[in-house]
Amino acid sequence: MNIKESDRGWQSGMAKSITFIVTKDCQLACKYCYLVGKNTKERMSWEVAKQAIDYILDREEEFREESVIWDFIGGEPFLEIDLIDKICDYLKTEMYRRNHHWFNSYRFSFSTNGINYHTEKVQRFIEKNRNHLSIGITIDGTQRKHDLNRIWKTPEMEQGIAPKPEEERGSYKDVVKNIPLWLEQFPGASTKVTISSADIPYIKESVLHLYSLGIKEVNINCVFEDVWKDGDDKLFEEQLTELADAIIDGRLYEDHACSFFMEHIGKPMDRERDNQNWCGAGMMLAVDAAGMFYPCTRFAQYSLRSKPAWIIGNIHDGIDKNKLRPFLTLDRCTQSNEECINCEVASGCAWCQGENFDAADTHTVYQRSTAICKMHKARVRANNYYWNKLFRKLELQEYEEQKRKSNHPACEL
Amino acid sequence: MLQYLIILLDEASVPYCHSLNPTPSPMGEPRLIPLDTLRAGIVFAMKENLNIQFVYPTRSLPDEYEAAIESIDHTKIKPEVLSGEADVLVLTGWETAKAEELDGATCILHTSRSELQKHLAKVQELLSRVARLNVVLTDIEEFKDEDADAYSQMLDALSDCLIEQFRQGRMVQLNLLTDRLLLTEMNNCGAGDTNVTLAPNGKFYLCPAFYHEDANQSVGDLTTGLNIKNKQLLRLDHAPICRHCDAYQCRRCIWMNGRLTLDANTPSHQQCVIAHLERNASRSLMQKMQAEGIRMRDARPIDEINYLDPFNNYKQWK
Known about the structure:
Chain A is α/β, with parallel strands linked by helices. Chain A is built from 13 helices and eleven strands. Chain A has three domains: 123 residues, Aldolase class I (TIM Barrel); 163 residues, no CATH class; 87 residues, no CATH class.
């Protein structure tokens, strides 16, 4: 039996993730984007990037992880391809010159909207770093689903004026044209799809559409923010159930994966044995244009609606380890309420530490947001349906196979 | 469970813990708590079954205030410069503290480590008179790992001062060294958990430090009642480092936690190391007492440990 599983990612759990927030600008203004403070002004300078790199590489004994993922994020990171190219050249040179243990155990990672993917500069960069690159292009599915949220930014938006619906321009066509080139260069690449309330009716068609574009792995999740309306969970469950039918009936499970369907989610969790934190905030490091360090990008001011940035230091004074202690001691139960701890379908219910902090009643990372609760439960029901149906199908197939074999005379006496 | 209500009688009530010095009132003279507010605070405490601790300023109170205070069972925390009876005296300076006038008193002393070192003779003098001395270090935030040896040596010297008193049969208490001998579980500041503070503006705060830092950090008022959000995070069982710790005498100051680690339930490295140096010094004190045949009622043995910051063990807990 062949069931494709989701890729766990390069050096999963063993790599330090270090993120450069190279710009807070983006060509798009996606409606579900959690980056509430995007702007055109905060672009990282080479001096800041170099100081951040020197700070990190100078402290090899403090960064003991086996490998490193140098991550570039925005806004849209490829808007700063010249800076990124310079950063990556410097990183390679310095890791080699210092005989750093990360040399030859590194990746450059990008999450991009894909619009500039085909440009000469980006392609030259890809060619130069091909063997150490992970690039994810975000495409949300069918054109109507993608264009519902992922719209071009207008000059008026920078003044806080939203465009009229008829003036909105979707970005699907500008992205989809680059998908073949991307898949040619990264055949196993996956895409990340975000689901907000308005997207729910288009989930099934979108995942199937992405498969039809040649993308074998679709990582998809509901936004963690409190955006869900009454009835969204029912609709979501219906969409996932229909998607399950399509994947199983079309035998797509053999060489495609969709992160909504995972065998081990939806089970109770033990208070002690299953007490790990979900999120890697604090184990990661992010630096922005001002040279400030954060436990992850979600704690930078441009990501926060209602809390001040959680700054853990800067490139001049270094990291204040006191401000990392709350993250490194986080566990599941201390931050969860009793309902979550005792939930019978708890496993696989995710959280984002940044969203928890932003939504918390006090200045803490120890209050788990439960906005996603009903959506997780709906997902679990559809997931149970998926695996029950799939296993029954495979069981019957196997039975038929056995029967066929047993009806066949094994040997002539 | 809430047990105590601390009432600040004045904007300039004397700091008795890891609090900031009161900010001067923008209107000029610091203001007394309005009499109606004081009375309402007392009624609130009576209805909630809370013991009241009144915190005095350095000036005398009008008679009607004293009458209101005496209407309920209470504890008085006063600066030592103020006359009249007190349960706890806050020493406001090395020079003004007169040991001969402090016989049998419970005193609080704010000091930096360097000042404490400089005035060890004065501490010895105080220990010869008082029943209990609570030392509140004012420079925990500035503590560095390289200061550990010097602090241990100072605690050792204080330990010798105590032994000297014990030899004479005076079982005086010094919070930094004797509390850990007697405790079998965490006994920390309890702000927002076992106690809450009523400020002169009629609003509740987790502790006086929150009021002095920013009066907008209130957790309710006398009209609407208490509203402590994420109250569970102020409890020991929701403090991942502290619940694994046996430096039972640690202040576990949640106000300082917020300042240094940005989360109320997480102590700073400095606070942990200082508390463990004190814990280990308490262990040495006990060994000295045993060597001298000095017995302290209810004192318990303290295990030897090989760390100063329990945070370094966090991977073992997960």
